């Protein structure tokens, strides 16, 4: 990683020229190799650059949808100023940052993903005027484009404000002027909290936690029903995820020679090539690690005869993520006890998927899947029946542990701030997308089950779209039934060898 060519703070304003003398100096790395910038170099760097303004930009694909979403937001909060920040870069270590991911609320309403952006809806007669506040292109006059660690020559070109207006269909202004405007704002204001401390500080005497929470809840519930663009993006994410699972199956021999990290790296390559990133930390859990629900250390061995629980999803460039799980035999064949447990989870998932219907309760698929698992646990003698008693007391949860699914979208656990009555206690509608993911987990140290069960964990998870007449499995491209999984793995490995 290159050493930034930043000048000493005492020299920065002078080197940048008289227009920058009142600006905050560009920060220098303490042990940088250059102590300053000569007047001659500063002047030289101002000129001789081609015009790179992009003049033939088309709007982002979701521009019509984001406009409709802003209109719905405007209608919900008439007469109020609404402030939705993207967020800021977060330091990973010293002077390196984590990869930036804009707040879901901001990206959902704008289509923009750049740090420091803020969407402001100002009340006007008949609705709101939207403005997107962004950092303009790096300034060549004050040297920021090559002297600042966030300048264009260090981290890449930003869009100009004019370009941003074309892309997002929203008037654009310089975000560096926004905090002063917000401090002077009058009338009711709401802000999405937790992303931009500077914006929140400018509004500290104008907002209340209760009112801001109402804004956050509305934006969460707005995402419960997906529009056509979102459904297309989720299908894209799932299709890439299917290919990522195929990639993993083809290299299981290399994972055996190394560790679970080979699986993690293999899937990550697909996610970065075809999408933005993984939608969440991939769970590459082999052997007894499969019994740890969110095993993301991925540093354990991969052994023939064990199961691999792979829970992973590709995130698209527009932030929509898949969330799929398969539990695969590392050697390509389920043992008798592994198949027995796997088939029980498969039957539970079948019952759960069948219960996903428009007009049904959100809880129906969970209840249906849990009933099947409780029946098997009673049948196997692991818990005393009858089944109704087991379900009433939740006794099956020792081995099923988690809920059977959740909403899916721009967050892997989407719409999390929605009201309980709109989500868990709500009714399914056409356009909702959710996961159905029952599991059975027999911990390696669980003395209440026969030894042959211990250390076996199985989860099967698919992404289900609620349709007008039932549902559609977006991840049906991956086999689920045990015999189909074995045949699929054999075919991939044969073709790869």
Automatic annotation (TrEMBL):
Residues 1-38 are annotated as: Disordered. Its cofactor is Mn(2+). It catalyses: Release of any N-terminal amino acid, including proline, that is linked to proline, even from a dipeptide or tripeptide. The keyword Ribosomal protein does not apply. Keywords: Aminopeptidase, Hydrolase, Manganese, Metal-binding, Protease. Residues 61-200 form the Aminopeptidase P N-terminal domain. Signal peptide: none annotated. InterPro entries: Aminopep_P_N, Creatin/AminoP/Spt16_N, Creatinase/aminopeptidase-like, Pept_M24, Peptidase_M24B_aminopep-P_CS, X-Pro_dipept-like. GO terms for molecular function: aminopeptidase activity. The keyword Repressor does not apply. Its EC number is 3.4.11.9. Belongs to the peptidase M24B family. PANTHER family: XAA-PRO AMINOPEPTIDASE 3. This is Xaa-Pro aminopeptidase.
